[in-house]
Amino acid sequence: MRIILDGMGGDNAPDEIVKGAAETSALIDHEICIVGDEARIIPLLETYEHDADKISVLHAPDVISGEDSPVKAVRQKKESSLVKGMEAVRNGEGDIFISAGNSGAIMSGGIFILGRIPGIDRPAIGSTYPILGRGGASLLIDSGANAECKPHNLLQFAVMGSIYAQNVLGKEKPSVGLVNMGTEPGKGSALVKDAYELLERGRESGQGLNFIGNVEARDVPIGICDVIVCDGFIGNVILKMTEGMALSISHLIRQKFTEGLIAKAGSALLYNKLGEMKKAFDYTEYGGAPVLGLKSALVKLHGSATAKAVRNGIARAVPFMENRVVNTIEDSVARFMEITGDA
Amino acid sequence: MRIILDGMGGDNAPDEIVKGAAETSALIDHEICIVGDEARIIPLLETYEHDADKISVLHAPDVISGEDSPVKAVRQKKESSLVKGMEAVRNGEGDIFISAGNSGAIMSGGIFILGRIPGIDRPAIGSTYPILGRGGASLLIDSGANAECKPHNLLQFAVMGSIYAQNVLGKEKPSVGLVNMGTEPGKGSALVKDAYELLERGRESGQGLNFIGNVEARDVPIGICDVIVCDGFIGNVILKMTEGMALSISHLIRQKFTEGLIAKAGSALLYNKLGEMKKAFDYTEYGGAPVLGLKSALVKLHGSATAKAVRNGIARAVPFMENRVVNTIEDSVARFMEITGDA
Prior knowledge:
The structure is a homodimer. The radius of gyration of chain A is 21 Å and the shape is globular. An 11-stranded mixed beta sheet of chain A has the order 3-2-1-4-11-10-5-6-9-7-8, with helices on both faces. Chain A starts with a strand and ends with a helix. The first copy, chain A, has 2 domains: 1-120 and 293-312, Isopropylmalate Dehydrogenase (3-Layer(aba) Sandwich), CATH 3.40.718.10; 128-286, Isopropylmalate Dehydrogenase (3-Layer(aba) Sandwich). Chain A is α/β, with parallel strands linked by helices. Chain A has helices spanning 15-25, 38-47, 70-76, 81-90, 103-114, 151-167, 190-204, 232-256, 261-269, 271-281, 307-322, 325-340; strands at 2-6, 31-36, 55-59, 96-99, 124-130, 137-141, 175-179, 210-215, 227-229, 289-292, 297-300. Chains A and B meet through helix 8, helix 9 and helix 10 of A and helix 8, helix 9 and helix 10 of B.
């Protein structure tokens, strides 16, 4: 199979993107095609050890930057790495597209170029949410694509998220929780109350949706369930609070642990452990958010993705393609549409 | 002035409540009236040093528990400490009601017994949100009373929150931010877009609303602004994520810092600092969430409030009463209602 990688998207492109691809090339059985300005990509690639049989370059002279208006850029910048890469996937020249570029343009391109799966009006971003200090990850879906949702969107997020969690994160019968203000049924806004009913019906339908009920945001960091379902506004708040608290607590640790000589001595002894903690807090290392609900596989990397994030993103892209997540979602949507009454 | 304190509400009532009141009695110029079962409160009070001229007891034989259905309990348990205490405030026998009891019953009692300020259809809970490691606090409003809001509710939260932040938290021209998915205007759901417009008009009206625009959840823990405005669902997620991340990171610290002898030695040297950090994470110590939009002053303490939380709650209750926050809100609402077009 063939991975199409946006060589020009993100703060560290093309250097870190090319480096990540080069490092991965010897480790996987698939081909990686880097899309971008040949004049920059090829010389860069030559500076890194790589498996030349597994890496190719598709020339795209233009770039969509972070400042570009997403919809306009996707329509007008036909020669950009993002548009050319997505077109390659749509035309069957590749099996997945990975980009650390303009998030809005990735979503717009996904919808306009790759296209939505019939029956899914709201593709969603699923972030792999690392469980601090315990290893493993949950999938947070939607993590920011849709500020406003209808109940049947949340059911679809649950179904798509379960399929991804099972096939890519390796969870058996992934447990699905709905973010709410309390765990009791009947809590929350009209949206979550109605979504709860649909998710219950989904569970009862025997189609394999393992809905465990409402979950509170307090239990998200400990990995209370495998798939965390919410609208994109709430998902954004959860991700941003995670980052903000990690930063704020790191700051507090730095402050406290350098007050006085005894504390400084203690910190010196904990040097390695503090480094490990800092790493656990570094959410940019995880990257790799699948966009689900499209006719092709698509992965959005963090804008500040490093070579390591690219490697991790590609590692997750492999089972995403190999296990035919998109086809499984297509097959499931029709069955679950009966539940939402849209069939 | 007279503080009416629910002696029977919360996990640690009546012991910790009475202890907190006793400890505060010598420190303030106001009278504290503890409502609850005389047969339990009076003997308890005698075990703690207190200023007998400043503490009285109002007998209430019944209790509303955490398991009671809020609306039903407020209607039926007429002899409960919560109902009798609120009635005392409504009848002018007290100036503020403080309770660590059933949150739903506090909100219901606030609306049914104390009553809403005309023009305010949605009273809100404002949590004092401590800024980790930097001291001080922001006010998060609404932090959970209203799962669903209209744009004019958010404007009213901003106005009420500003008045509280100025008069109780001592902020001059408190800065007000609207929680959104990004800082640019035009982001987010229809609710926040429309609320943004109203808040802008509020700022431009010259009535003293210091609206600084959208803020991201990432910046809430560092205290990006004095008043953080959002609907109650988002507010709940922010508070719960704060608790959840603090717990999760504490767990990680415990885990990392006890791996191996060197780490253990380092931790021993940092014993005091780790204790201080744990304290900074303990959100139950802060307590004291004002319920704003009612005809009388009302403070909700955390259900697990200790004597210290009671002391802190009373300390905040003093400027809440003395600075006539409720009257200032009453006066301001009429002016801001013109902005929402409800006048």
